[in-house]
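Lab notebook, bench 4. The sequencing result for the construct came back, and we need a structural model before the next group meeting so we can plan mutations. Quick request posted to the team channel:

Model the 3D structure of this chain.
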Amino acid sequence: MITLFSMPSSGNSYKVRLLLAHLGIPYTHVAAEYDGDATLTRTPEFLQKNPTGKVPLVVFDSGATLSESNAILHYFGE
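Done. Here's the predicted structure in token form:
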């Protein structure tokens, strides 16, 4: 199962969650709201997955990652 890191208040993150739900693709959701400097997206573990520190981010079972909402939408839309 894929893991989706997304910001619940973000429209770009919402688009990804909506598409995955529409396509019936199961995923684990990790909420990542920006909250000053102490955020999930600034931890060393997250920055290893996505050096830009941005969400949405999809992490596949293989460990491969895909970031940027348009790239994610295109990948799953294909």
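DSSP finds three helices and four strands in the chain.
Will bring this to the meeting.
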